[in-house]
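Can't paste images in this forum, so I'm doing it all in text. The chain is below; anyone willing to post the predicted structure tokens underneath?
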Amino acid sequence: QVQLQESGPGLVKPSETLSLTCTVPGGFITTYSVFWGWIRQPPGKEPEWRGAIDASGTPYYNPSLTSRTSISSDMSKKQFTLQLGSVAPRGTAVYYCARGSQGWSPWGQGTQVTFSS
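Text version of the structure:
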């Protein structure tokens, strides 16, 4: 079973860039049908896919994003990273990383991020 673990700051100011890291202790599976994604769930709302990266390092983003988003990976560190800039307080949510292959599973346990000035 693949395991994923998110890490990052719990509190961010709207003027700052949020950076979250997902560590995959077992390492990435380097098949092109597998994606490594980020999903967020604001309070009281459904989960929302933010973007993903594939085994070649190609990122994919939710076209409805209004904040500056960047997803990158470092296979040597068994990590992939989400960076969000210009995020309003409505960016407060639990952020999850997940493995994607015919659906998103498994997910990490999630990390709470609060945007507040």
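The chain has no helices and eleven strands. The two ends are 39 Å apart (CA to CA).
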